[in-house]
Every structure is written in C-alpha cells, then in structure tokens.
C-alpha cells in the first residue's frame, strides 16, 4: 500500500526573526541607555519593554557592555546610511558637501538618544584609544579626501592639506551637534548648516582685507 507523507506540523521557520529581534533589542536598548545612563541600565528593563526574557537578550548580546557598543554602532551606521543616501546622488562635490552637512545635523536633531550614548561612551569608557564615532568617521572619510583633492587640482579650492579641510569641517559639525544637545538650541538645522558652510567656503574676511592679508609685507625701512 502506498503511503503519503504528512506535511510538517507547526509554523514554518521565520528566517528573518533573528535579525528583526536584534534590531528590536538595539532600538529598546538605545532608549533605555539614553534615559537611565549606562551604569543604571538594567537589562531586565530592556527585556520588559519587548516582552522578552532577560535570557533572550543575553543570547543576542552576552554582556551589557557589548549591547551598549552595538547600540552605538547601529546608530552611527544609520547616520552613515542616511547621509550617504542624501549626498551620493548630488553631482557637484561642493553641493554634495552642503547636503551632507545639512543631513548630518538633521539626523542628530531627530536622534538625541544617540548623542546621549556618545556622551556616555566618553564618560564610562575613557580608556578606549578611539571612540566608536571616530572609528566610523575614519573608516568612511576616504572618498571625501579624494573628492576634495580633485577640487584642489581643479583650482576650486585653495591648495591646503586635505586633512586640514576634513578636520575643520568635521570638528565644526561634531561640535555643533553637541552644542545643540547641551544648549537645547532650536535653530533650524538648515540655517546652522548654511552658517557653517558660509564661514568655511567664504571665510570671515572681506575681499579687501583678504587681499591685504595675502599681499607680501613690505620690508621695514629705517
């Protein structure tokens, strides 16, 4: 007698569940770390938010420290993805830089929890040689260096070291992000970006003062 195979019982395995669960844990962890601070954060609180067991959270992230750094890394990956998606389609490099600055400031304005995590990382893990923020920055700044060097070669930028440009612009937006958070500034990010770009692109000297500063100094006579 021929036998027929029975269909497997139960629901089919959800292959996407581990990645979705990981993202859910990181989302909840970001909020709790930002609210309670790293030392006061209890993993059970994160688990309760997701109606999970504490053991489930530890299965994905074996320690609170690992969970914290994964949350910081996730936030910075989202920053990079957001800036890249906005800036990459822009053809001109200077316009692309302007879009990147505006998008950067807008991202942090909409994600103050990540700013809190960056502050906590510095406070709680001072022995680290490089913060996660600068690890991400250094890993992704390469294309900008090449684009800025091309602008110098084309005569569109002054012939100054590219690293100097990268550091100045990077420090300006980084500092603005923290100042906004600490001071509770509500100035539109578009206006802040325009202020930064205006000073970087045009400087603060008038044309006549710039010409005077660039002119060779006449030798002093007796």
Give a topology summary.
Elements: H1 17-36, H2 43-49, H3 54-60, H4 64-87, H5 93-110, H6 112-124, H7 132-140, H8 142-153, H9 162-183, H10 189-202, H11 207-214
Rg calc: 25 Å
- What is the CATH architecture assignment of the domain at 71-203? Orthogonal Bundle
Uncertain regions: pLDDT < 50 for 5+ in a row? none
**β-strand number:** 0
Classify the helix fraction into a percent range.
Answer: 55-70%
- The CATH class name of the domain at 71-203 reads Mainly Alpha
CATH level 3 topology of the domain at 71-203? Tetracycline Repressor, domain 2
The CATH homologous superfamily of the domain at 71-203? Tetracycline Repressor, domain 2
Largest sheet features? none
- The share of residues in extended strands comes to under 5%
Structure write-up:
- This protein is mainly α and 222 residues long.
- It has a domain at 71-203: Tetracycline Repressor, domain 2 (Orthogonal Bundle), CATH 1.10.357.
- It is built from eleven helices and no strands.
- It is elongated and about 85 Å long.
Structure described in brief:
By secondary structure, the chain is an all-alpha fold. It is built from eleven helices and no strands.
Please give a handful of descriptors for the protein shown.
Tetracycline Repressor, domain 2; mainly alpha; single chain; 222 residues; 11 helices
